[in-house]
Design goal:
This protein is mainly α.
Length: 219
């Protein structure tokens, strides 16, 4: 009788595992399309909406929540209305928090995401927000580095910030270049086949790396 019960339990577990939908393929294809769409903002918005729908459908998996947060932050950069931008960033923060909760901890990727959200909030009102959110940006990137110093997205975010900081305040292309070069070396070590091991930012890094190698007069 005991063997029969154990066998039945094993069958039930196997069937449950088989019944669990595999979200990874659709998440990866949608994310890859989103992250390589730059000009067609309608298409990018539609792909971002799809990532959010995937997150809602698979709300017990951390990765869909993470990529929903990422897509919302990216789209928030293009939003001109300050109130709408803040609302988008609030939504992104909620998905980021859901991802961390499902992971059961903060990791280097969720810390980078928190830094990105803080940086985007500066853009809503730079004059009044740079001090508060600038400190948050720095603190969360440093935490991300403590958790995984080989995360290339840390140096990508530092590089972008340096790139857009005026030279008189310690920024500019020359100051940004070493960050992009370090990010490039670390991206080369990553496997881009597993959507549960974030690899976003490679194309963005390549773009800024070329820009940083140019002269200050180049746009």
């Amino acid at each position: 009788m005991k063997k029969t019960i154990l066998a039945a339990a094993a069958i039930c577990l196997t069937l449950a595992a088989q019944a669990q939908p595999d979200y990874k393929a659709v998440l990866k294809s949608t994310f890859d399309a989103f992250d390589t769409t730059f000009v067609d903002m309608v298409a990018k918005q539609n792909l971002g909406n799809k990532l959010v729908l995937i997150a809602k459908k698979y709300n017990d998996q951390w990765a869909p929540q993470f990529y929903a947060a990422y897509s919302i932050v990216q789209l928030a950069y293009f939003e001109k209305d300050p109130t709408k931008k803040d609302a988008l960033l609030d939504e992104a923060a909620n998905y980021r928090d859901d991802a961390a909760h499902l992971l059961g901890k903060e990791n280097s990727e969720t810390e980078v995401m928190t830094a990105m959200i803080a940086n985007a909030r500066i853009g809503v009102d730079p004059r009044n927000r740079w001090q508060k959110y600038g400190k948050e940006f720095e603190a969360h990137l440093e935490k991300a580095k403590e958790l995984n110093a080989d995360n290339p997205r840390i140096y990508l975010e530092y590089g972008i910030t340096k790139f857009y900081t005026p030279k008189m305040f310690g920024g500019g292309k020359k100051e940004a270049l070493p960050y992009f070069e370090k990010a490039k070396a670390l991206y080369a070590k990553e496997n881009q086949n597993d959507i549960e091991k974030p690899y976003w930012g490679l194309t963005t890094m390549e773009y800024f790396l070329e820009k940083a190698k140019g002269t200050d007069s180049e746009k």
